[in-house]
Amino acid sequence: MGRPGLHCRAAQAVAHREEAAVRCGIVRACPFVRRLCTTQSPSPSSIVSTPASRRRAPDIRAWSGSPSLNSSLVSTSGTARPAAANQDTRLRVAVDVDEVLGRFVYALNLFCKDRYGMEYKVGDYWIYEFAKIWGCSQERSNQIVHEFFESQHFTGGIPVIPGALETLTRLSESDYELVVVTSRQHVIQDVTLDWLDRHYSGLFQEVYFGNHFALEGKSRKKSDICKNIGARVLIDDNPSYALECAAAGINVLLYDWEGAYPWSKLPASGVHNSELIRVVRDWGEVEQQLATLAPALRHPTLAPGDS
Ligand SMILES: [Mg+2]
After folding, report:
1. Annotated catalytic, 96?
2. How far apart are CA 62 and CA 189, in angstroms?
3. How far apart are the CA of 16 and the centre of ligand 1, in A?
4. How far is the CA of 97 from the centre of ligand 1 (A)?
5. Fewest CB within 10 A of the end CB: N or C in the chain?
6. Ligand 1 centroid vs 246 CA: distance in angstroms?
7. Within 13 Å of residue 213, how many CA atoms lie on the same side as its CB?
8. Could you write out the DSSP letters of every residue in 83-115?
9. Which CATH superfamily, name and number, covers 4-101+160-298?
10. How far apart are the first and last CA of the chain?
11. Series of mean pLDDT values for 10-residue runs along the chain (307 residues)
């Protein structure tokens, strides 16, 4: 959307590479082509190259948990790269969308005020469960959020988080492989991909939808997704996901933007694997913490901070 030339060139390149991939039995990722996860094994048909082709794809659903995903990666230049070498050199980092890449609650509040006269600020959300903040049922909350998905406040694009693009660009140009792992629902996957393409084009190799709080369809836990795709670090603002992933042995950077996300606080005690969770307050701190973690994650014999 908005860059037909890029899509066109990418589609031509991908068509070329897909042909080779079919011969080799592998599936590739490319900066302008986001691979979605389907209920079936990854195949060239699960690669989505343009918004139009995404809309035509009949069976794009939740991630399947296929263990073959790791071994199916190739470099963005299109040169096949064995999975083992890839794991040695590139640290796979999963990135959440809402409140980490974009200001979802900020835009949601604008919608709620316009549609229902509800007056809330980001600072009102002591927990990231809207029904509890709004004092309504979960069903009503889901309904309002899905109305928001249909509104210009959402489809027009939620604002980005400052500093994310610059940091992610540097990371993607060094030894990190970036994927999106979001709790977002299947029903907004096209809008989400368009938004990512508009604001973070070429930075993410793959996009995984957990389909949480959905009106229909199965959901997948973020910890399951991260483990199965080999993500060693998750960047997320939600402490529930942070706790869940840390308990599963995954490092987490808990994104509490400027320390001003009321919901993004860990319990004072009783956190399992708490050493795996580090609080970060902006994208500069994300970069610093990844630099500290990366050597030990790439070479497990090193202690964190050694290099
Ligand atoms: Mg989030």
Report:
1. yes
2. 10
3. 36
4. 6
5. C
6. 16
7. 18
8. HHHHHHH-EEEEE--BTTTB-HHHHHHHHHHHH
9. HAD superfamily/HAD-like (3.40.50.1000)
10. 42
11. 34 36 28 39 30 33 30 26 50 98 98 98 97 97 95 94 98 96 95 96 97 88 97 97 96 98 92 92 98 88 56
